[in-house]
Design goal:
Largest sheet: none
Distance between the termini: 55 Å
Structural class: mainly alpha
Order of helices and strands: HHHHHHHHHHHHHHHHHHHH
Strand content: under 5%
CATH topology: Amino acid/polyamine transporter I
CATH architecture: Up-down Bundle
Length: 424
Amino acid sequence: MVRNRMSQITAKPHGPNRLAGFLAVFGPGLVVMLADTDVGSIITAAQSGVQWGYRLLALQFVLMPILYIVQELTVRLGVHTGRGHGELIRQSFGAIWAWISVSGLVVASLGAILTELSGVAGVGELYGISRAVTLPLAALALILIVLTGSYRRVERAAIAVGLFELAFFAVAWAAGPDAGTMARQAVQIPISNSDYLYLVAANIGAVIMPWMVFYQQSAIADKKLRPEHLTAARWDTAVGAVVTQLIMAAVLVAAAATLAPNGTAIGDAPSLSTVGEVSQALTPLMGPVFGRAVFSAGVLGAGLVAAIVASLALAWGLGEVAGYKRSLELRPLQARWFYGTYAAAVMLAAVLVGVVPDLVSLNVGVQVMNALMLPLVLGLLVLLAVKALPPSVRLRGWYLWLVVAVCGLTSALGVWGGLSGLFD
């Protein structure tokens, strides 16, 4: 069992066993961060480069520490309480707040799964394969990955699939961005433009999503990590935060270099309306065959790992509030509602994507929806870190105020940008 394995590693903390301990703990943070750079995030980054050049590039780096601060709270809560996010909200603030929180999770998770499967459908269409073929195959693969594995096997499968996202670094390199244009535009912030603010909100919503909070805390609880694993779990989260934002930056750079090489994108550039158009925008310098293959690998990796994470977050979160059995260590017949919820979410999303025409607008809209939900998600997360943690590890002093400021400003900017774009 995972707990026995963790106990053996903890008992021998030196030399090779220290490395083994770190590797055994690694996983939840890296998986959730690879899922963070999902199809919706990739399309949001591409749309940002298309319409604004490099003017949203700096934001990708600013969001690195913010993403780490938020997800580190889930690490702390998971290792010190051994409880998932929904269960801890119910225990600390009552059933009403738990159901409010999980209701937001349902909306965000379903929106995320829609974007992931839309990416899979878009890749299929690049090769002339209809959604009627790609969507059932993708749904079946996602269900089998979870039904046939323990948590550790699911985690390894998710990481293996998610690493295909590294293909976007090759796409950015091939685009040949101009360093001078990049540096000049990166500091040009048209803060009064509502279209710009809308994409700011979309980028924030693409980085901090409700299902990420639920997934990482529940995964840590399911993996049975304990306080002695906190340092390794933090490194897991930090590495993932850097990698995911570098991938976002790579996509944005590739789009800006390809479609606005002279820095002419000022918000009125044509929007991308299909995944195929995104592919054509990002891969012309790599050749039609190789470029399309690299792009397809990145999108498939992003879509599949995020679909697994968002669906599991939904199944875990509902189980924590509703009280049904929920663990990847249980067989499907032992946790029927858990596996049934996961499968139902995947199949429902596959059906909906089959009839949604404008996939890019759907993706950007879902990210803005995530941004509008940030006050609830981050507010409850910070309150849990203050109330539910053991007194010795609760947030306090300057770091508490730093976390409050970061979460408050991020929520305010996300909501402001989202509302500015929606009601302009």
